[in-house]
Design a protein that fits this description.
It is built from 20 helices and 18 strands. The strands form four sheets. The protein has a six-stranded mixed β-sheet, with helices on both faces. The chain has helices at about 40-50, 85-90, 95-110, 115-135, 140-155, 170-185, 200-210, 225-230, 250-285, 290-300, 375-380, 415-420, 430-435, 455-470, 485-495, 510-515, 535-570, 575-610, 610-615, 615-645; strands at about 5-10, 15-25, 30-35, 65, 70-75, 185-190, 215-220, 230-235, 240-245, 330-340, 345-360, 360-365, 390-395, 400, 470-475, 500-505, 515-520, 525-530. α3 (about 95-110) runs antiparallel to α4 (about 115-135) and α5 packs antiparallel against α6.
Length: about 650
């Protein structure tokens, strides 16, 4: 067990934030911590890491313990490195203990050449212990690990001599995460690690965490991410924490079952409370029954009242329907360049944009940040111009457009006024009913659009779209700013929508549930994949593996062709050819000796690590001497091999 929390509390401005929290984190498990904004997720992380104090219960109970042998690494939300060191220096600093261990081993190895007796035995024992530690932590692969992690975190093409302070905020955050992954703490704590990550980096991180040797505690709103990496989900709800075995999909099933059970218990308790209150009210003023009423009051006071499950708060209702059936071909885009900016600032994002959408398709558009996905939605609707190519829409198409920036809303207008501006015939009562369906009620309907939250503006948009009854939904990041419950309602509504959807989103969980075709946007154009996001990812991975294998084959073929060409172009005398043949024979012999020497080195290193050998100073001295001689021979043979290879 890495972490054990028992009955802790946390108060904020006199209000309870965390109530009677108990949680354990076992070795080699990945826990996803979820909950609504402001529920206390980051606070709990800070308590675990000692950055914040917790509050004890009135009876003095409450404790938290972290295994003293465990190393804890914590990446806070939007935190990053601030350093005058280079990227390479910063990454190597993750191995400070290993580097110092290797330096000490080199010193000991040198000392063993002249030491004797007890001194040699002592030095040999320390060397053996350090070597075991160094090998156990994969010290000989430090540089390889740095290269792999930097590549995975999107720094593969970055100059590692670049100073960290020159990086952007997002790059510093990614680099801080890369360093933390290299340090491999026993407990890795991540607060919203998917911020600032593009799709490829995100997928690499998921694979890395799935094979992580330690424990992971992660806070994330990316449901697809936690679905892929987590083995347990813990949800903070109304100050309490609830644990569910399995991934996010398993959590959804278990949460529904728990909520149904809790609702039944809550309703049963409410009935019992109502009965007691009714009895007390009817009998407390009558002398003959006052004593019984008082007894019932004591019973009522002793009841530990249950909270109403929050998930049973009435969810929003998003009903997306249409009246007119469009033609089979909804939109055809042919050879359109996508350009942004004006004048000297004008630049081409996509050279050739060509794709089509058929009636009833749910198309998800993905691609790297800045490639122009949102601009594609504007381009096909004629909101931005295009120079060349063609865009043609079918007949009877009625578009309902969700703009992630909400520019179509008049922010000076009231919420109810905006609904009626879009639908002039709608009465006040009908407009309020429409807004009530998306949980905008009471005085909130009279607030200016500018002062309501981003989530409420999104709900207002959905209410207007429902009234519009479009048969083609064009959606740009519709789940941004939405709480989890509204996301689930929207996903169900979109999945059930029988019309056409053209959707841009980074929300892979949404894409997986709604899309039946994925369009991947690149600078060259668009690649189409049938199926949802999972299907796209499988096909994309297969293609990448095939391309990598093809590139390796081409490289080998190119090297072989260059070698053959060099042979043909080189006119050599008989004496020169004989000399080359002799050198090649020397190379073959050297290669055999090098292989034998490497095997001997591996064998000696294993024997030196054996406690039985380490206890015998004569034996360890002999083994270390043999090891040094073998390493020296290997170095000499490698130099000779390189010299001969250059001459052939």
């Amino acid at each position: 067990m890495i972490v054990s929390i028992e009955s802790i509390n946390k108060y904020f401005n006199g209000e309870v934030l965390l109530k009677d929290i108990s949680l354990t984190i076992e070795e080699k498990e990945t826990v996803g911590l979820i909950g609504s904004n402001g529920c206390g997720k980051t606070t709990l992380l800070n308590i675990i890491t000692g950055c914040e104090e917790f509050d004890k219960a009135p009876d003095g109970s409450g404790s938290i313990s972290v295994d003293p042998r465990a190393v804890v690494g914590y990446l806070r939300q939007n935190s990053g490195l601030e350093s005058h060191r280079t990227i390479e220096e910063e990454m190597r600093s993750a191995f400070e203990q290993l580097i110092s261990t290797k330096e000490r081993m080199d010193i000991l190895s040198s000392q063993m050449q002249t030491a004797q007796g007890e001194e040699l035995e002592k030095i040999s024992h320390e060397y053996s212990r350090l070597n075991t530690y160094f090998e156990a932590r994969d010290g000989y692969r430090m540089d390889v690990r740095i290269k792999q992690v930097l590549g995975g975190m999107g720094f593969g093409e970055t100059d590692t001599s670049q100073v960290v302070d020159t990086l952007s905020g997002g790059e510093k955050t990614r680099l801080a995460l890369a360093k933390l992954l290299l340090e491999q703490p026993d407990l890795l704590i991540l607060d919203e690690p998917t911020n600032h990550l593009d799709l490829n980096t995100l997928m690499w991180l998921e694979e890395h965490l799935k094979s992580y040797k330690g424990s992971v505690l992660v806070v994330s709103h990316d449901r697809y991410f936690i679905d892929r990496v987590c083995t347990r989900i813990c949800e903070i709800e109304q100050g309490h924490i609830y644990s569910y075995k399995g991934d996010y999909s398993a959590y959804l099933v278990q949460r529904k079952m728990r909520d149904e059970r809790m609702m039944k218990e809550f309703e049963a308790q409410q009935k019992e409370i109502a009965k007691l209150e009714d009895y007390i009210a009817r009998n407390k003023v009558r002398a003959s029954t006052a004593k019984m009423a008082k007894s019932r009051q004591h019973m009522l006071d002793r009841i530990d009242r249950l909270d109403k499950p929050s998930s049973y708060t009435k969810p929003p209702k998003i009903d997306l329907c249409y009246d007119i059936e469009p033609t089979k071909d909804i939109v055809k885009v042919s050879q359109c360049p996508l350009e942004v900016g004006e004048g000297e600032q004008k630049r081409v994002l996509i050279k050739d944009l060509s794709f089509n959408v058929r009636r009833g398709e749910h198309v998800g558009i993905i691609g790297p940040n800045g490639i122009g996905k949102s601009s594609i939605l504007k381009l096909i609707q004629g909101l931005i111009p295009h120079d060349g190519g063609s865009i043609s829409w079918g007949n009877n198409v009625k578009i309902s457009y969700f703009d992630q920036e909400h520019k179509e809303l008049d922010r000076h207008n009231t919420v109810i006024g905006e609904v009626q501006r879009k639908n002039p015939r709608l009465s006040d009562g009908d407009a309020r009913n429409v807004l009530g369906s998306v949980l905008i009620r009471g005085e909130n309907v009279f607030k200016p659009v500018s002062v309501i939250s981003g989530g409420e503006r999104a709900k207002l948009y959905f209410a207007i779209m429902a009234l519009n009854r479009g048969n083609v939904l064009v959606l740009d990041e519709p789940t941004n700013h939405l709480d989890m419950m509204t996301k689930e309602v929207l996903e169900d509504a979109l999945a059930a929508f029988e019309g056409t959807i053209i959707l841009v989103s980074h929300d892979r969980y949404l894409l997986n549930k709604v899309a039946d075709r994925i369009l991947e946007v690149t600078a060259e154009g668009v690649n189409s994949y049938e199926g949802n996001f999972d299907a796209y990812y499988r096909e994309y991975t297969t293609q990448q593996q095939a391309l990598q294998a093809q590139a390796e084959q081409q490289k080998k073929a190119s090297e072989l062709a260059a070698y053959e060409q060099k042979k043909q172009q080189s006119h050599k005398s008989k004496q020169q050819r004989a000399l080359d043949a002799k050198r090649r024979e020397q190379i073959r012999q050297l290669e055999k000796e090098i292989e034998q020497t490497e095997e001997l080195i591996a064998k000696l290193e294993g024997e030196i690590s054996d406690p039985a050998v380490a206890a015998d100073y004569s034996a360890i001295n002999e083994k270390c001497s043999q090891l040094d001689r073998a390493r020296q021979k290997l170095e000499e043979d490698m130099e000779l091999w390189a010299e001969l290879a250059d001459k052939v």
